[in-house]
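TA notes, week 10

Several of you asked for a full example with nothing omitted. So below is the full record: C-alpha cells for the whole chain, then the designed sequence directly under it. When grading your own attempts, check the secondary structure regions first.
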C-alpha cells in the first residue's frame, strides 16, 4: 500500500522501581501481573491503529516512561508488530534507561531488538544532588560498555537543582567529554506540585542566564552544537523524534498518558494505568482529552514549536503545509521581530540571541496573544 508521509511513534512504559521525589508522571509498580495486563492492552492499541500505520512510513520510535528498561519484552512485542509496516531506511529507535540498568545482558538484548539510541537519565554526577533527586550514580565504565553495543548515547542533564553550585555544574560538564556521548538534553528541575519534594517544602529555583551560558559555552567548546532550545548534539546526531515534534509532523502515542497529533487533531490517553487497561479490555480507546485545532491556533502553536529549533522555520514550507498565514499571526510575528525576539532573513525566521534566552516568553507571547 502506498504511504503518505512519515510518522513518529512514542510508546509509554509506565513501570518504575520507585517514583522519583520530584516526579508525578504516570507510573506504576513493577509487578508481574500489572505488566501482563498492560502488555495485553498495548497489543490491542497497536491493532486498533493498524490502518493508520499502514498509511505512513515510520521515521522514529521512542520508548519512554516510566522505566522501559524494566520491561524490555513490551518493547520487543511492539517492534515485532511494527515490523510489518513501511519504515524509512534508517529509523531512530530510542530506549530510555536508568543508569543503574546499564548492564551487559540488557544492553545485548536492546541491541538484538534493533535499539540504536539510548536516552540515559544521568541528571548529574554529584552524589549529594543525586540523593536529593532519588537517583542512582552512574558506574565507572558504564557508558563505554553501552557505546560498544548501542551506537548513539544521549544523556539528560539537570540544572536549577536546589543547592546546586556553579562548581558542581562545572564538574558535571567536565565529565561529558570523557564519555562517548553524542547528544545532551538540558532541563531545569521541575518539581511537580504533588511530588515528595514539593510536600517537603522544596521549590523550583529560578534558572539564571549565567548558568545557561556556562552550559552552552562549555558544551560547544567540546563539540556539541546547540540545535534546539534544550538540545546539544554532535553534527548529525540530532534527535529525529524531537525534530518530528517541533516541525508539526504527525506522531502517534501508545500506552497510558501518551499524546498524539494527527490530522490537525491532538489527543491524550488517560494517565491511569488501570483505566487504560480496562478501556482496551472493552476495545475502547482510552482517550481522556481530544481537540481539533482551529487554523489560527494551529498556526500559532506550530510556529512556537518550530522556533525551538535554532535553524528556525522556512515560511515557504510552512505555508505550503498550513496555509497562508492569517493576518493576526503575521502581525504577531512582525511585532516579535520589531521587539528583537526573532530575526527574519528572506523567508526564514529564527530566534535572536535574546529570543533563545527567553524562548518561553516568545512562545507564550505568540500563542496567548489575542
Amino acid at each position: 500500500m502506498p504511504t503518505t508521509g512519515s510518522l513518529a511513534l512514542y510508546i509509554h512504559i509506565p513501570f518504575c522501581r520507585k517514583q522519583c521525589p520530584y516526579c508525578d508522571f504516570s507510573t506504576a509498580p513493577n509487578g508481574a501481573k500489572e505488566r501482563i495486563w498492560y502488555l495485553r492492552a498495548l497489543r490491542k492499541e497497536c491493532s486498533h491503529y493498524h490502518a493508520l500505520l499502514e498509511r505512513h512510513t515510520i521515521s522514529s520510535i521512542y520508548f519512554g516512561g516510566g522505566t522501559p528498561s524494566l520491561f524490555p519484552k513490551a518493547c520487543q512485542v511492539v517492534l515485532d508488530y511494527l515490523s510489518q509496516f513501511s519504515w524509512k531506511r534508517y529509523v531512530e529507535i530510542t530506549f530510555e534507561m536508568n543508569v543503574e540498568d546499564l548492564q551487559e545482558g540488557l544492553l545485548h538484548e536492546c541491541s538484538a531488538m534493533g535499539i540504536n539510541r539510548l536516552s540515559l537519565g544521568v541528571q548529574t554526577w554529584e552524589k549529594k544532588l543525586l540523593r536529593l533527586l532519588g537517583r542512582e550514580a552512574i558506574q565507572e565504565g558504564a557508558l563505554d560498555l553501552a557505546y560498544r553495543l548501542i551506537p548513539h548515547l544521549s544523556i539528560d542533564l539537570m540544572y536549577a537543582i536546589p543547592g546546586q553550585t556553579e562548581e558542581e555544574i562545572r564538574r558535571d560538564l567536565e565529565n561529558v567529554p570523557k564519555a562517548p556521548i553524542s547528544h545532551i538534553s538540558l532541563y531545569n528541575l521541575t518539581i511537580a506540585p504533588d511530588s515528595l519534594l514539593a510536600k517537603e517544602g522544596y521549590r523550583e529555583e529560578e534558572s539564571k542566564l549565567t548558568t545557561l551560558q556556562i552550559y552552552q559555552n562549555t558544551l560547544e567548546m567540546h563539540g556539541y552544537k546547540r540545535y534546539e532550545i534544550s538540545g546539544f548534539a554532535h553534527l548529525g546526531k540530532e534527535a529525529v523524534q524531537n525534530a518530528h515534534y517541533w516541525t508539526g509532523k504527525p506522531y502517534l502515542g501508545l500506552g497510558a498518558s501518551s499524546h498524539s497529533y494527527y490530522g490537525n487533531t491532538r489527543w491524550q490517553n488517560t494517565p491511569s494505568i488501570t483505566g487504560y487497561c480496562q478501556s482496551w479490555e472493552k476495545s475502547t480507546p482510552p482517550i481522556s482529552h481530544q481537540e481539533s485545532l482551529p487554523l489560527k491556533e494551529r498556526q500559532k502553536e506550530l510556529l512556537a514549536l518550530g522556533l525551538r529549533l535554532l535553524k528556525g522555520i522556512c515560511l515557504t514550507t510552512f505555508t505550503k503545509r498550513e496555509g497562508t498565514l492569517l493576518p493576526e499571526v503575521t502581525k504577531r510575528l512582525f511585532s516579535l521581530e520589531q521587539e528583537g525576539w526573532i530575526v527574519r532573513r528572506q523567508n526564514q525566521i529564527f530566534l535572536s540571541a535574546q529570543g533563545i534566552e527567553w524562548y518561553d516568553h516568545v512562545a507564550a507571547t505568540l500563542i496567548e496573544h489575542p
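The radius of gyration is 21 Å. Use that as a sanity check on your answer.
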